[in-house]
Amino acid sequence: MKPLGWVMMIGSIGFVLALLSYCFYRVLSTPKTTEHMHAPLEIDTRDKDT
Amino acid sequence: MNHVIEPALNQARNRENWGSKLGVILAVAGSAVGLGNFLRFPGLAAINGGGVFMIPYFVSLFILGIPICWVEWTMGRYGGSKGYNSAPGIFGVLWGRSCGKYFGALALLVPVVIYMYYVYIEAWCLTYALAYATGEMSNIAAQAEPGAEVAAYGEYFGGFVGTAQNGFPQSKGLIILLTVFGINFFLIFRGLTRGIETFCKFAMPLLIACALVVLVRVLTLGTPDPPQPGGSINNALGFMWNPKPIDKEGHIWSALLNPELWLSASGQIFFSLSVGFGIVLNYASYLRKDDDVVLSGLTASSTNEFCEVCLGGLITVPVAFLFLGSTGLTKEVLGSSMALGFHALPAVFMNMPGGRFFGTVWFFMLFTAAITSSLSMLQPAIAFLEEGFGMGRRLSVTCLGFIVATGSLIVVYFSKDLLALDTMDFWVGTVCIYILATVQVITVGWIFGVDRAKKEVGRGAEMRIPGVYWFIIKYISPLYLLTIFGLWCYYNLPGYIKQVQAKTPDDQGTVWFVLAFIVAVLLFFNMLVYLAGRRWHFDPDRPVEEGPP
To answer: Is the pLDDT confidence value at B98 over 70?
Structure first.
């Protein structure tokens, strides 16, 4: 393995690992939104006339 | 409201959604991670300049792969927010007029036809895993002449698949194919959350764990044959990663001026991320309207890149070099996923200490990667049948099962030189994908409009798309796609036509028959889109709750 080969290998793998770690860190550390949580009275059961 | 429309409306009201953000990321990543990551990428990189290949590869990732991936996620979520999960519905609502839905027929054709042959390849992976586990592979190696193991495994593959003449393979092959078919349809029948999402949540970590087991084995092999010190892991990694000229006279960096290198790299990014398959479009439509698409899309893409660069790039070619040497890894072996995966690698594993175990793990890993991909190919058509005709899950799965089983039987029967499989892969798995991806980028950049797309992407986004990407999406990606498609046609179509013309009349008949079948499926889907579209009215301003009218 030549020095340039090491550079390309470590550079490529390091870059992908850094991107993957960043993405998963952001995904897993972002608190779950309360967007989809509804109180029972807010749920539209679609059986009302109004 | 007539009674035929009622089920579709009810279905829209009870729309399926992903259970969790991680679930959708793993499902999309599972769809993208397949045999190409472990067999196609390493071979392609090794014959296209080694480390040099990674430069156009990463450039293509950032100006082609990731932008198109964001475009697909955005289109899908937007269509879903208007009550559509199928590509014809999504295209219709993005175009704001009825004719747009016909482009969606292409997004049904691509995954359905690819499934027809992909499921067969998936069955080979399971067959090989079982053959390693039961010791059948060891017997082949024991009976082969020393140094002729690759040829022996090639013969085994040819006999198993039936490449010598058309006809159905041995009963064992058919039973495994039926089993794999059954697993796919069982999971798809269970639905989005209970079937696809739950399976991918287990399968993706399992796949990565299996690949890591093999990777540790490969990196700790040292010099397996001490009398030949050239065959060390250091040199094996060098064979894969050292920058080298593509042709004998060329300079290392002058390879970057070679259009074929850029074509190979961008093609690999394109197929690896599964952009242009119509699958992400469908998967993203099950997101809620304020779910993030930017970070999720990037995470799914980076998971795919991890499997390809970090796992595929460190395992496949280095291990093959260790046992076959550079003379065994000819351009023909490296350039063909079939030859590398099903002829060369089995011989490699049988020469490796603990090879029977690692061979089982490797082919089981390939099977897992393949099944997470094949599952995703069924969902777009099922979503269309459900929302277009108000079918229930059982009926839509049965109808689709009939269609894909017909296609798979054609692939299995016309097995001579794998002609049916190659024809489908060439016209649908390559040409149609380029066309569909171009239509998608133009739809978002020019029809839907960048300003609306920006607003749509920004909703719920957990990271910002850099401003330059909108310029890329509008101008660079379509231009780049059209250029590489033009170049691809220039380099490949004449050779393909010559290759077909040189075949026997019977083989030419097979090619024409398969082509006619593909056209028939496309026309059939267009007819279904027309029938479904009679009950759809594409108004982009319709509120979400109404679902397909």
So the answer is: yes
Q: Which helix (H) or strand (E) holds A31?
A: none
What letter represents residue B136's amino acid? E
pLDDT of the residue at A39: 54
Which residue from B minimizes the CA distance to A8?
A: B51
State how far the Cα of B532 lies from the Cα of B398, in Å rounded to an integer: 18
Distance CA A44, CA B228 (A): 73
Cβ contact B298–A23 (<8 Å): yes
CA B366 to chain centre: 13
Nearest Cα residue to B413 out of B405, B515, B114, B399: B405
Among chain A residues, CA nearest to B231 = A1
What is the interface size between A and B, counted as CB pairs within 8 Å? 87
Tens digits of residue pLDDT in B30-77 = 999 999 999 999 999 999 999 999 999 999 999 899 999 999 999 999
B477-500 burial by CB neighbour count: b if 16+ within 10 A, else e? bbebbeebbebbeeeeeeebeeeb
In a 10 Å sphere around its CB, with 0-12 CB exposed, 13-18 middle and 19+ buried, how is residue A33 labelled? Answer: middle
Highest mean pLDDT, choosing among A46-50, B195-199, B434-438: B195-199
Q: Note if the pTM is more than 0.95.
A: no
The set of residues, in sequence order, having a beta carbon less than 8 Å from that of B260 and lying 6+ positions away, is B48, B246, B491
Element (H, E) at A22: helix A3-29
User: Do A5 and B54 make contact, defined as CB atoms within 8 angstroms?
Assistant: no
Cβ contact, residue pair B13, A46, below 8 Å? yes
Nearest CA in chain B to A46: B13
Nearest chain A residue to B26 by CA: give it: A24
Among B234, B241, B288, the residue with its CB nearest the CB of A8 is B241
A23·B295 Cβ contact <8 A: yes
pLDDT level of residue B2 (50, 70, 90 thresholds): very low
Rounded CA gap, B205 and B372, in Å?
A: 12
Give this complex's ipTM: 0.89
- Smallest CA–CA distance, residue A40 to chain B, in Å, is 17
Cβ <8 Å between B306 and A12: no
What's the pLDDT score for residue B1? 36
Assigned token pair, B134: 């039961």
Query: Radius of gyration of chain B from Cα atoms?
Result: 23
CB B105 within 8 A of CB B526: yes
Specify the pLDDT at position A48: 54
Q: Quick check: helix, strand or coil at residue B229?
A: coil
Q: For position B333, what pLDDT does the model report?
A: 83
Provide the shortest C-alpha distance from residue A13 to chain B (in Å): 6
Tell me which of B112-121, B299-308, B309-318, B328-337 is least confident: B328-337
* Tokens, residue B344: 């060369």
Residues of chain B contacting residue A16, judged by C-beta atoms under 8 Å apart: 302, 305-306, 309-310
Residue with the bigger pLDDT between B73 and B534: it is: B73
